[in-house]
Amino acid sequence: MTEALLRVSNLKKYFPIKRGVLRRTVGHVRAVDDVSFEVFPGETLGIVGESGCGKSTTGRTLLRLLEPTSGEVWFKDKNLSQLNKSEMRAMRQHLQIVFQDPYSSLNPRYKVGTILSRPMEVHGLYTPKQRIQRVEMMLERCGLNPSAKDRYPHQFSGGQRQRIGIARALTLNPSVLVLDEPVSALDVSVQSQIINLLEDLQEEFKLTYLFIAHDLSVVHHISDRVAVMYLGQLAELATSDALFSDPLHPYTQALLSAIPHPDPRAKRERILLSGDLPSPANPPTGCPFHTRCAHAMDICRKQKPVWREERPGHFVACHLYGSAVEGGIPR
């Protein structure tokens, strides 16, 4: 079996809540709460969930753009959680990120050529002439004219800026790209172009993607496996086809039922969730989803469900599977 390229184990990220004149810590926002998963070479792992579920924080924490509260992140045989600043800076050559907002992720004071060449300067890669050549090559490969290096970010459209952001991430020839909602701020027509570009680049440069998004249709199209997050925790993880054809967790079923169908005459039963999303500063006891789940039982309110492999390669955290209930959720 292929060894995982990236392993995330029991990752937590808590943000302190401070109040009063002395700014004392009175609680924590549990943005990421004990998340574990693996990403294999050449695959695309999608992470989906509602806004505020912790998916973007997960991506930034595993890259240590946000320092984790606890947990471990392994890249090959390196434990990223134990690296000092200089060691982590060197490791960033292999782990890059493409941000959601193509407008704020590029420094407006610098020309595109400077923005793309700066990472290579920091890591001491190539000669100045080779850096210019690589900048032009990456711009062209990402669908832009090489002359774009002499222009400023404000002279480009949103889709073009996202292409620049992708080109910047690829200048260091990384192994892993964390794509933090890379198309959510773009027009629908541009979204498809960027998705096709990402697929072509993945095949050409043998890249591994962690694709974070809330658009389930996009995730289904690009992902090999999909992880569903709810309130900072993983609810379900499976191959893309298995998850979309036969979801196990009630939350996943509700999410998939909300996907628009291209045929307006097709009848689909919409699963409406009751209640509001609980606060990550005060999550429910037991299963975090029990306050909105139509199948909730007494055990759901008292005991956190075990993360289990219900089927080969299909993981779920739900008391409706295993020894709690025979037969699982009625469908």
Describe this protein's structure.
The protein is of the alpha/beta class and 331 residues long. It has two domains: 6-94 and 174-317, 3-Layer(aba) Sandwich (Rossmann fold), CATH 3.40.50.300; 113-172, no CATH class. It is 29% helix and 24% strand. Strand 11 and strand 12 (314-317) form a beta hairpin. Helix 4 packs across helix 5.
Short description:
With 331 residues, the protein is α/β, with parallel strands linked by helices. It is built from ten helices and twelve strands.
| Global structural class | alpha/beta
| Number of individual domains | 2
Q: Classify the helix fraction into a percent range.
A: 25-40%
* Strand percent estimate: 15-25%
CATH architecture of the largest domain: 3-Layer(aba) Sandwich
Work out the radius of gyration: 21 Å
If you average the pLDDT, what whole number results?
91
Core attributes:
single chain, 331 residues, alpha/beta, Rossmann fold, 2 domains, eight-stranded mixed β-sheet, four-stranded antiparallel β-sheet, 10 helices, 29% helix, disordered C terminus
Q: How are the secondary structure elements laid out?
A:
Elements: E1 6-19, E2 24-39, E3 44-48, H1 55-62, E4 70-75, E5 78-79, H2 85-91, E6 95-98, H3 112-122, H4 128-141, H5 158-170, E7 176-180, H6 188-205, E8 208-212, H7 216-222, E9 225-230, E10 233-239, H8 240-245, H9 250-257, H10 298-302, E11 307-311, E12 314-317
Helix pairs in contact: 3-4, 3-5, 4-5
